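Onboarding guide, step 5: your first structure request.
Type a short instruction followed by the sequence, for example:

Predict the 3D structure of this protein.
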Amino acid sequence: MVIQLRKQPSKTQTGAMKTRRMFGDCIRKELPIPKLVDLYNHYINSINRFD
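The system replies with structure tokens like these:
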């Protein structure tokens, strides 16, 4: 797991009601992100350049 500081989603984003419950009164919160998801998000841009 990787811990990342994330911002609370706006009220109009998809799935915001479920996600905003995790944040409570906090505007930013450190959340655990699975390592596989973190690696995918980090390297996806290099994959798309050559498609």
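Each response can be followed by summary notes, for example: The beta strands are 2-7, 28-33.
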